[in-house]
Structures are given as structure tokens and as C-alpha cells.
Amino acid sequence: MQDTDPTPAVSQDPSLVAWLRLEQTPGVGCLTANRLLEHFTSPQAIFSASHAALREHIADAPARALLTPPDAAQARSLDAILAWRSMAGNHVLTPDHPAYPSLLRKIDDPPLLLYAKGDLALLAGPALAIVGSRNATVQGRATATAFAQALSQAGLTIVSGMALGIDSAAHEGALRGPGSTVAVVGTGVDRIYPRRNRELAHRIAEAGCILSEYALGTAALPANFPRRNRLISGLSCGVLVVEAAAESGSLITAHVAVEQGRDVFAIPGSIHAPLAKGCHKLIRSGARLIETVPELMQALALLPLVTANVPAPLPGPVLESPHAALLENMGHGPLHGDMLAEVVDMPPGELLAALMALELAGKVERLPGGLFQRVNR
Q: What is the model's pTM?
């Protein structure tokens, strides 16, 4: 006999429990649930409807699933979510919750529920998404950090996906300003992925906000990440792509942003740099080329905010004149060591020592394939 005894969850918050049941019903995804809500207006009304009334809108299997009371395992899951929500800083947002982001209500497939950990106020202010390659260069990460810090200082919240590379750099920069950051993750908010971002995730939860449409305990499934990208762009007034390969997942976010009516911006790079190919592809498709923070702020009609809030650049290490001359001759694109040796006319041993000194000073990045690239911070 099926266990259908009343549970503590039902008595604690019947409205939220109905939303959670709707989310957890097999065969009922966001689109189906939103279609039902258009007709029945609330989850409670859906669960109170007859089989015949449900069948007017959905197939037989999900209709029967909706009419099946929660079993013991589902009841325990509901109680666990309510227990998690009762902890400080934890939230479950339904579409009728005042903190549910208004911009997300307007996208084609808004999340049925949002799980949030941190400051909900960040979901209401102006925001910009910064995304890019997981395998970012030192230069790319420095650029993402600098842009995010300046924009955060101007009061914008930076939205990204807490992946390695550009995402992490954007979050780091944003945490240095009052705009802070929102990390939209492809797991449950109680999971940290990737594990290397554990410390960053804790700082975001304390000073920013971690957001997910996936239920607690959801693992890092590959299909989750492209889908969550629509929330990264949906929360934002625009998307800035810093570094991306020609087939980068960041381009998915950019394409979704266009479909949502958001602005797309891209930072160009060297024609020889693989991680510039995706940005160049976006620019050819209509994305706005961005080289400086004031350019971006002007495009967002927020230029007056940035003039007083962009942090002054930190002075770099003082280099000896031979190293400074080498740096000047490198230009700003990836350059092979052999070609560089011809340009500067230095013995191989001396050139290697100079490049190592520049690398230690944070002025040069060593790339795969014997390439070196100047780093501008």
C-alpha cells in the first residue's frame, strides 16, 4: 500500500510544498508546468483538478502523476528542502515571490522555482553577464577581473556561471566592488562545482548570491549547463564575452541573449589567438566590439557612473631596460619564441632568461606550442 500519510512539510508551508511537488512530478517540466499554471493559476488548483480537466492540457501519464500523492521518499525530500530553506541565507523563490527576478519572468521558459543562497537584493538591480573560456589565458582572466571590478564599482552586479577561467575571474573582480556578483550554477546550490572553486563559492554566498533552478542535491550533469545559460543572460541587461574559442559554450549564452533581446558585447584579440576566434565570430554576427570599460558603460547608457568609480590601475613591477625593450618588441599577440629571437636578435639563452623574468613579473604568459604573449593589466 502506498504511503500517503500527512507530512510535517504540508503543515509547515502548504503553498510552497505545492510548488515543490509540481517541480518534482515526473513528466512535468518547466514548459508543461507553466502551461498548466496559465490555466489553473496556482499549483494547489492543479493538484485539486480532476483527471479530465488536466487531460485537456497535458498527456495522460503526467496527469496521473500529478494526481498521485507524494510517497514517503518524496515527503522526506520536501521536508529536507524546507529545512534547508530555514537556514540563514537560504531561499526558495516561487514566481509569485517578491524577490523572483522580474527579467526572468519575461523569458520564454522561466524557471518554475529558484534556489538562492545569499543576498536576494542583487537579483533586483542592474546586472551584466561576463562569460568566456574555461581555459582562459592569463591576459583573459586579468581583463575579465578588471572589467568586472570597474563595473561592480559603478554599481552593476556581475552575473556569471562560476566555471573556471573567465567566469571565476569575473566573480573575483565583482566581489571587489559594491555591485558584487551572482553565480548561476548548473547544480543544486548545495553542491560546489567545480571543486576548485570551493573557496570562491563560499565568498559569493557570503557577499553575493548563488542561484540555481535545479533541486537540492542535483549533480553536475552535462545537459544542465547549456540550459542554465539562459538564466545568466536572462538576469542581465547584456552579455560581455571576454575570451572564447570558435565553438565555445559561451557562444550559446550570447545566442540566447540575442533571442532574449539582450545586448551582446565582445572583446577582440589577436588573429593568431585561438581564444579570440569566438569573439571575432560574434563581432562579425553583430556583437559590439568593446575595448575599454568606458566604451561598455557608454553602450549601457551608464557612462556617468564609471568616471568616478573605475579603480586606478596598480603600478606594475619595474623592469630592467633590456627586459623592457624585449617586452616592447613582443607586441600584443601570441609570438613564437623562434620568431621573437629573430626580432630582438638575442642569444637563445639570454632570451629564455629574459622571458622567464618577464613571466615571473606577470608581464608575459607562456602559451602552448612555444608561444609567448604579453600580458596587459
A: 0.80
